[in-house]
Design a protein that fits this description.
The chain is of the alpha/beta class. The protein has three domains: 12-23 and 273-444, Rossmann fold (3-Layer(aba) Sandwich); 69-213, Rossmann fold; 449-551, ANL, C-terminal domain (GMP Synthetase, Chain A, domain 3), CATH 3.30.300.30. The protein has 16 helices and 28 strands. Strands 1, 2, 18, 19, 20, 22 and 23 form a seven-stranded antiparallel sheet that branches. It has a five-stranded mixed sheet with strand order 13-14-15-16-17. α1 packs parallel to α7, α1 (37-47) packs across α8 and α10 crosses α11 (326-335). The longest helix has 22 residues, at 212-233. 45% of the residues are buried.
């Protein structure tokens, strides 16, 4: 920031046309120092003044069972030891462990254990269909699969030659009971840590390969901010208790788990989301913090149920997954003036973070996703000319930071298309920075549908629709929905003599995809608008759908 060409107000360098972070950059561990995510998180945990071994790290909102930090750390040590000493073990440093399970106390323990011995963690949605699982397993090429017994048959049918360890078996439970020291494994920070799954523009799910260094860099900034906040609070000892209904296989849930343990917080796990149960849980456990999506913010500000519960413990809601409208934020603040709303922006490809609002002043910039995180740079690039643009101009957001992924596993072509030769990640999002360095998301160049913070690729659904014998052509768009944010809507051209109905179209797709990818609205049309090269003109369909919804 000492460079004379950098505007201290917004971080924009007129010489390089690059935006620099306005945050204080904390020191990072030297890159040559071997360090796993597990060791780094636990070092932050033990240095945190809020850390108490007897405090709960995990609470199950359904059973009310809890796990103390002391027991959690012992389980991680035990499981790390057990997995390192399995007979005929398929696990080795650099190998991949595919994980398919609903949320439970076992999952955080398993993540930290695998990461500590250098095994790459690759969790997937337990609701994935067999065809989806087959594709994911081809990408990850795991040496072992962790699953629960209710899902194991689905896994075995997809990959019968990979050994499966059942998380709900007595054998696995026994791996958690040893009183041993966790084995010390030399793990370079540049080693891959996780493979998380993200939809691409082609409709094929991609495996995003993130390193230990990526998450260490992300956590370093958050920890630095937290320590400064503790110093400034001057005796405020309110313990952070976060309610967690994020899927732990999703980058948001995965990263927020790491963050919560590093910050010595208590996590209340909610396996199945129910709005009223959530309110009950906030009241019962005096929850202070929740990561949320915009649709949940809408539910909060509209529901009369909130009047039946004491929600005064809530201090902060971290909103991500999709842009939060200014109107929704203002209506929420009118009802809950004591709750601060933080917004953020990130991608699986950035480890879940890229920009955020910090502190009351920044959080009042409704509509913005905040300022660039620590150690980050950005460009706003004209998609047509490739020219880097100044503040106030819209273009594609490019990012460069130590948090950026290694690439897409097994897909060199997609990796090359996503990265500029100078190391910039092309996000595919249309954005701009204002004169104070706040980032605003305008639209998505990638055309992905954001259903309750999940990414849904239209091309994947279009391929399925076109496989139906009675469908001649099809296109899928994002249709605005107040509850979900966006829902997949299909425009269908039927073949002559077809009598297929909208419900039949939706049922056909539902059998082949995870619940969040399902078509939820159908319109029958005579033709799909396309440009001369055959590309679907989705914007025309969006305009058509939103202009006359009752006619569709």
């Amino acid at each position: 920031m000492a460079h004379s060409s950098i505007d201290p107000r917004n971080g924009y360098c007129s010489a390089t046309k690059t935006f620099h972070t306005l945050r204080e950059n904390p020191p990072l561990p030297p890159e040559i120092t071997p360090l796993s995510i597990t060791d780094y998180v636990f070092s932050l945990l033990h240095s945190n003044p809020d850390f108490s071994p007897s405090s709960p790290v995990l609470i199950d909102s359904a059973t009310h069972h809890s796990l103390s930090y002391s027991d959690f750390l012992n389980r991680v040590d035990s499981l790390s030891h057990s997995l390192s000493n399995l007979r005929n073990s398929p696990l080795s440093c650099g190998g991949v462990a595919f994980i398919l399970s609903p949320p439970s106390f076992h999952i955080p323990v398993l993540y930290f254990s695998l990461l500590s011995i250098g095994v790459i963690v690759s969790p997937a949605n337990p609701l994935s269909t067999q065809s989806e699982l087959t594709h994911l397993l081809q990408l990850a090429k795991p040496s072992v699969i962790f699953a629960v017994s209710s899902i194991s048959s689905k896994v075995n049918s997809c990959s019968s030659d990979v050994p499966v360890i059942l998380l709900d078996s007595p054998e696995f439970e026994s791996m958690l009971t040893y009183r041993v020291t966790r084995p010390r494994v030399t793990i370079p920070q540049s080693n891959s840590a996780v493979i998380l799954y993200s939809s691409g523009t082609t409709g094929r799910v991609k495996g995003v390969e993130l390193t230990h260094r990526n998450f260490i860099a992300l956590l370093a900034g958050l920890h630095h901010r937290r320590m400064k906040a503790i110093e400034e609070e001057e005796g405020n000892k309110t313990r952070a208790i976060s309610l967690f209904f994020l899927p732990l296989f999703h980058v948001f849930g995965f990263f927020m788990l790491l963050r919560a343990v590093a910050m010595a917080e208590t996590l209340v796990l909610m396996a199945r989301f129910d709005f009223e149960k959530m309110l009950e849980t906030v009241e019962r456990y005096r929850v202070t913090y929740m990561p949320v999506s915009p649709p949940l913010m809408v539910a909060f500000e509209k529901s009369e149920l909130t009047k039946n519960y004491d929600l005064n413990s809530l201090e902060f809601l971290g909103c991500g997954g999709a842009p939060l409208g200014k109107e929704v934020a203002l209506r929420f603040k009118a009802r809950f003036p004591h709750v601060e709303i933080g917004q953020g922006y990130g991608m699986t490809e950035t480890g879940g973070g890229a920009a955020s609002t910090v502190g009351p002043e920044e959080c009042e910039r409704y509509g913005s996703v905040g300022r660039l995180q620590e150690h980050s740079q950005a460009k706003i690039v004209d998609p047509s000319t490739g020219e880097a643009l100044p503040p106030g101009k819209e273009g594609e957001l490019w990012l460069r930071a130590p948090t950026i992924m290694k690439g897409y596993v097994g897909d060199k072509e997609a990796t090359a298309a996503t990265f500029h030769p100078d190391g910039w990640l092309k996000t595919g999002d249309l954005c701009y920075f204002d004169n104070d360095g706040y980032l605003y998301i305008v639209d998505r160049l990638k055309e992905l549908i954001k259903y309750k913070a999940y990414q849904v690729a239209p091309a994947e659904l279009e391929r399925l629709l076109l496989s139906h014998p009675e469908i001649a052509d099809a296109a899928v768009i994002a249709y605005p929905d107040e509850e979900a944010g966006e829902i997949p809507m299909a425009f269908v051209v039927c073949k002559p003599e077809s009598s297929i109905t909208a419900s039949q179209v939706m049922d056909y797709v539902a059998k082949e995809v995870s619940p969040y990818k399902r078509i939820r609205r159908v319109a029958f049309v005579s033709a799909i608008p396309k440009n001369p090269s055959g590309k679907i003109l989705r914007r025309e369909l969006v305009n058509q759908a939103t202009a006359s919804p009752s006619k569709l």
